[in-house]
């Protein structure tokens, strides 16, 4: 793997992309508690509850030849072979779908664990290899039979493995030849008994190779089996075919068991202590089929997870119908649809990788604030998202999930106002649409009318970060910010969240942008960075907020929401005294000036205890519109109803 390939892999293997795949797997498998992990160990598997995938499996994402041959076979444009990131998305999604289908349709723990013949390690290896081929063929068949959009990914995963495994010869037999004579048997003189054991191992591999080719790679020419295995191929062929389309997970392993019974004369007696000499057979199967860990029968989690696979009716296989006739699937439309989504996710990942903490600096004079702020500096920080906060964020989100979903369901009713709408195709009206000038009936006029809808609005939350917010008030500020962010983001409302404070003894105000108007998905975790210390200089912070919302939003309606717990208070030095009543008057004047410019302002009083009105009374001296909040469950309803009144 080249250095640039490692860099692309690093950009891809982010928490954001992992979460995308985890959410997809949860949705497909209908397991809300499913966890998905990225590893770099050349394996992909599931224990029935969790999924492990390796985006860089066999370094396929940077194997241009294999990817080009895959694209050519599937009739696709050259996107995967020319874009490493898009290739990683496709490879990961193909693995994810395959393992998710196992969670849906495979019994866990595996029936293999109950088979007494599996106590011998070599027998277990043969049993799991047969089961692996049958189960994987079934999984691909059920994906093609019961889902409209899974064949594309499953076909990509299967075909790309073929070209990756045997690029030169084009048949699976080449891989078999590589493994048929392990190095240790070439260099050491062995006994007749050991030679016979080795011969049987080679026959077992040839036998499994035959059915791997027949079931999983029907596009490859099937070689005639040798005379030593021909009898076993003929006796078991129908069992392989029937097992690979058996929709009952309780009966599917029965076919593996019957096949094992028939080929038992081929299976050498190998003691467990000698098994290491024959581990290459597992490498062989893994190279052709994929990692066997899902089918190995070994426990893969601390607590063995039990689940019953769903029954299914197979109507086709991945590449053929049930009679073995080739099906020419056209994947182009789905390719275009998926590629568009992958491109968006690529841009998001690159943007997040390039994102760094940003800084700006202003003075009160530059912001045209009142004279008392002229020499006060505002330092603005926009931190890079802190993914360490994800778990804490998710805990709060889950605690208020029911409330958030409730607000989302009735959002339009809560935040509605009179908006301008346009109707076209009129013979006369307010204006002309040039693209309709060719209308023979001259219906190229439009009219402006008024209707009720969610207004085009941008909201800036300015949160008090002073020391008096410490404790439950700061916790409530965090909770309210998360609730509001989730509701507004879900409904496409522009918003930003900013923390502000003034440093005592210094002519300095600090602003921390937690969520920007043009935020990335991970910015929300920075809400957990809200803390409490120092004071506030709210009149100056409002002047900055006015400039910020005007420069960063083009929404028709703009609102600044100030979440606070009382009066502004700051002293830059011995001569500066920004405390009540001066601070009250200055902030009140700043708010009125901003509202005259058409920007609405709402104060939110975070009370510490139910029935306490001290904060509310303080903010009423500053803002014309104030909400009193002592219960986070009611905040969104109160706030959105008041915002809507600004536009009715």
- Work out the helix count: 21
Report Rg. Answer: 33 Å
Tell me the β content: 5-15%
Please tell me the overall pLDDT: 84
Distance between the termini: 61 Å
Task: State the domain count.
Answer: 2
Poorly predicted parts: 167-186, 299-303, 417-421
Biggest sheet strand order reads 4-5-11-10-9-12-13-14
Can you summarize the main beta sheet? Answer: 8 strands, mixed
Helical residues, percent: 40-55%
Query: How many strand segments?
Result: 14
Shape designation:
elongated
List the quaternary state of the chains.
Answer: single chain
Structural class: alpha/beta
Question: What would your notes on this structure say?
Answer:
- The chain has 648 residues and is of the alpha/beta class.
- It has helices at residues 3-12, 15-29, 64-74, 84-105, 121-146, 151-165, 173-179, 183-187, 192-216, 227-243, 249-263, 280-288, 332-354, 390-399, 401-409, 411-414, 472-490, 538-552, 582-596, 614-620, 632-645; strands spanning 35-38, 45-46, 50-53, 358-363, 377-382, 417-426, 431-432, 445-453, 457-464, 494-503, 508-515, 557-564, 599-606, 626-629.
- The protein folds into 2 domains: 3-345, no CATH class; 360-416 and 454-645, 3-Layer(aba) Sandwich (Rossmann fold).
- Strands 4-5-11-10-9-12-13-14 form an 8-stranded mixed sheet, with helices on both faces.
- Helix 19 (582-596) links the parallel strand 12 and strand 13 (599-606).
- It is elongated, with a radius of gyration of 33 Å.
- Residues 167-186, 299-303 and 417-421 have low confidence and may be disordered.
